[in-house]
Amino acid sequence: MGDRFVIAIDQGTTSSRAIVFDKAGRAVSFAQKEHRQIFPQAGWVEHDPMEVWDHVREVIAQSLARPDVSPLDIAALGITNQRETTVVWDKYTGVPVYNAIVWQDTRTDDIINKLSETGGQDRYRDRVGLPLATYFSGPKIKWILDNVPGARASADAARLLAGTMDTWLLWNLTGGPNGGIHVTDVTNASRTMLMDLRTLQWDADICAQLGVPLSMLAEIRPSCEALGAVASPGLLAGVPITGILGDQQAATFGQACFDVGTAKNTYGTGCFLLMNTGPQPVFSRHGLLTTVAYQIGDAAPAYAIEGSVAVAGALVQWMRDNLGLIDEASQIEELAAAVSDNGGAYFVPAFSGLFAPYWRDDARGVIAGLTRYVNRGHLARAVLEATAYQTRAVVDAMEADSGVRLTQLKVDGGMTVNNLLMQFQADQLGVPVVRPMIAETTALGAAYAAGITVGFWDGLGDVVANWAESQRWVPQTDQAESDRLYRNWQKAVTKTLDWVDADVR
Question: What is the mean pLDDT of residues 232-252?
Answer without folding.
Answer: 89
